[in-house]
Amino acid sequence: MIDQQMPLRGGATRLPVRPGTGRFLVLAVVFVCAACGLVYELELVALASYLIGDSVTQASVVLSVMVFAMGIGSLLAKRLRGHAAVGFGLIEAALALVGGTSALILYASFAWLGESRHTLVGFSLAIGILIGAEIPLLMTLIQRVDRQDAGGAVADLFAADYVGALVGGLAFPFLLLPMMGQLTGALFTGAVNAAAGGALVLWVFRRDLCPRSRRLLIVVNGAVIALLATASVLVDDFERAARRAVYGNEVRVAMQTEVQEIVLTGPVSGSLDLWLGGRLKVSSRDEHRYHEALVHPAMNGPHRRVLILGGGDGLAAREVLRYPDVTSVVVVELDPAVTRLARTDPALSTLNGHAYDDPRLTAVTGDAFAWLRTTHERFDVVISDLPDPGITASTKLYATEFYGLVAGAMEPDGRLVVHAGPPSARPATFWTVEASVRAGGLATRPYRVDGRLSGFAAVADGATGGTGTPKGWGFVLAARQPVGRLGMDPGAPPLRTLGERELLAGRRAAERVRQHGVQPSTLVHPRYWEEP
């Protein structure tokens, strides 16, 4: 129960500190809790975008559910105002536990259950309710410290809350994520949250607590901090186990860069898989089918100077460099860790034919869109080997404006080829890419080739011997002038599988599923989404 005390100046409760100091400490805790709350939100958005895809949708789900839940939490907290000190202490302990473990449990549900959407909504709802319950109780506590008008108290609380949110929002991408990673960063944030909330109540408002409430808060906060600390110690083992559950037992390289997670699986000698941002980018079992179909039709014509957008793995460059009359190749890759891995990893560098050792190749680190805006070079062939257009971060690289920049970097008789996703499995996305290329001022010729199993199902099926559903790759060949028939350059090197007959069949297969009247995607009106 709450002790009855004689009111002091202005109705303030007797405290172990001066009213001004008490007010400062309450606002400082508001600042810390707001920073922690925003970190929880950003952790959920970032991890969900990586695990599920489409960052716009995931951010909308997290933020809308959380704001709705904050309203519910504020209403529920009205019942606790008579026990504001112990109520606030328990809510902060619960928030620290739920928020601190949210990223870990979300990743676990994805790794072992294969589904994380329901977990994402559940954590957004729980964290929102707990954050919403903070303000009514803090309002009661600050009034107990030093009586002031309600408007002034609300202004002080929200000022501290908003500044804390700013610090948390900046600390997440620039401090927590690069230094600790998503899982450890969330656990550390939870520990800070529990320590700040518990310290405020157990020190400043200790005279509001009966002995039983004081013992309860000490035990609960101690248990939460101990649990989060233990999880932090074990998080590396957890990550390794989760990666094995997702990628199989042969994870050889795993790193988190500022751009994405990079995972390389398979032995040094043998088949390998390269995963970028949780998506299978390269499988040595059949990558040649993709890269031969991507590169060689575009090389049918002048091809002395070649630009590769993306393709940091060096595999598209390998195919280009097989032409002896190529004089220069420029690879523009956003993530320098990918090109570094392609240079140094024995298996990957062998697979790409040690392309980065060829003096004709120049690697540039940068965003393809920004690089095209500043370059004055002109190329005979432009190869767009970029992430899937359905990924929100890549949408601008499949926009009409982007293809206008590409057209400006092409020689008058130059050619562009774009990886546009599978036309059968994702026809709306594929034909939106084709429409966007045309809107950029280029004539097009779509085609497809059969390819590997797609995504995580490929690993599961490969591990169990299943067959799965074959997926194809779709491409768009484009030029300033009408594109003639698909074919190979007379000086093309011998290919493993691709031939004139397969290209003709691939063109017909793409045309059979053509969608008419598709609108192009632009920067201000993106039209890509993740299709089932």
UniProtKB/TrEMBL annotation:
Catalysis performed (reactions): S-adenosyl 3-(methylsulfanyl)propylamine + putrescine = S-methyl-5'-thioadenosine + spermidine + H(+)
InterPro entries for this protein: MFS_trans_sf, PABS, PABS_CS, SAM-dependent_MTases_sf, Spermi_synthase
UniProt pathway annotation: Amine and polyamine biosynthesis; spermidine biosynthesis; spermidine from putrescine: step 1/1
Residue ranges of the TM segments: 24-52, 58-77, 84-108, 120-142, 154-177, 183-204, 216-235
Binding site for spermidine: 291, 313
Family: Belongs to the spermidine/spermine synthase family.
Subunit structure: Homodimer or homotetramer.
Protein name: Polyamine aminopropyltransferase
Organism: Streptomyces atroolivaceus
Gene behind the chain: speE
